[in-house]
């Protein structure tokens, strides 16, 4: 019977244990690789762009979306410019001088209209006359039975109005004829 050695194992024994552990580890690794290789699979790596402009997938809808965004932005800019121009025009029209000119021209046209009306229907108005105003010609003829008012605009369009004399309280007296 061999006597059991107590204490520390010898160098040769430590070397043998170390070698056995390395062989066991190598065998475990090899067996693991064999089992895992059956499960693992690989495919070719293919790069694909996410942006439709580069990949070509759904390109038309992408281009339509981009075009719509550009159009919307252009329309917004045009509306902003138009709004700014209208605002500037409103500010220019609201000055004291522009209101004065507007009021003055309104009163002048009103007085001119009153003078023409009096000339048409007064007893001393005469039998006819004409006036040119901003390219349009207004003329009237009073024949005692009716007053014919003719308006010719700058394009040559003619409008004729016939007003009967003595009806509706117009020129019920002798109309100057």
Q: Could you characterize what this model shows?
A:
- With 177 residues, the chain is an alpha+beta fold.
- Among the domains are: 52-93; 96-164, no CATH class.
- Helix content is 53%, strand content 15%.
- The protein has four helices and four strands, in the order H-H-H-H-E-E-E-E.
- It has helices spanning 11-39, 52-55, 59-93, 96-121; strands spanning 128-133, 136-142, 146-152, 158-164.
- Strands 1-2-3-4 form a four-stranded antiparallel β-sheet, with no helix packed on it.
- Strand 1 and strand 2 (136-142) form a beta hairpin.
- The longest helix is centred in the middle third of the chain and has 35 residues, at 59-93.
- It is rod-shaped, with a radius of gyration of 53 Å.
- The termini are far apart.
Short descriptors:
177 residues; alpha+beta; four-stranded antiparallel beta sheet; 4 strands; rod-shaped
Order of helices and strands: HHHHEEEE
> For the report, how would you describe the main beta sheet?
4 strands, antiparallel
Helix/strand/pairing category: alpha+beta
Helix content: 40-55%
Rg calculated over all Cα atoms: 53 Å
Distance from first to last alpha carbon: 170 Å
Low-confidence runs of at least 5 consecutive residues: none
Number of helices: 4
- As a percent range, the share of strand residues is 15-25%
State mean pLDDT (0 to 100 scale): 81
Oligomer description? single chain
Shape: rod-shaped
Quantity of strands, as a count = 4
Adjacency order of strands in the biggest sheet: 1-2-3-4
């Amino acid at each position: 019977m061999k006597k059991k050695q107590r204490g520390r194992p010898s160098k040769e024994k430590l070397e043998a244990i170390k070698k056995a552990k390395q062989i066991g580890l190598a065998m475990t690794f090899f067996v693991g690789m064999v089992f895992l290789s059956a499960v693992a699979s690989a495919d070719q790596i293919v790069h694909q762009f996410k942006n439709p402009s580069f990949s070509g997938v759904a390109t038309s809808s992408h281009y339509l979306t981009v075009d719509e965004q550009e159009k919307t932005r252009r329309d917004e800019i045009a509306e902003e410019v138009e709004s700014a121009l209208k605002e500037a025009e409103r500010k220019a029209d609201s000055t004291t001088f522009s209101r004065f000119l507007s009021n003055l021209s309104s009163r002048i046209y009103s007085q001119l209209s009153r003078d023409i009306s009096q000339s048409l229907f007064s007893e001393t108005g005469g039998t006819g006359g004409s006036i040119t105003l901003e390219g349009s010609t207004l003329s009237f003829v009073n024949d005692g039975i009716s007053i014919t008012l003719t308006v010719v605009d700058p394009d040559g369009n003619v409008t004729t109005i016939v007003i009967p004399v003595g009806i509706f309280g117009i020129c019920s007296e002798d109309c100057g004829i």
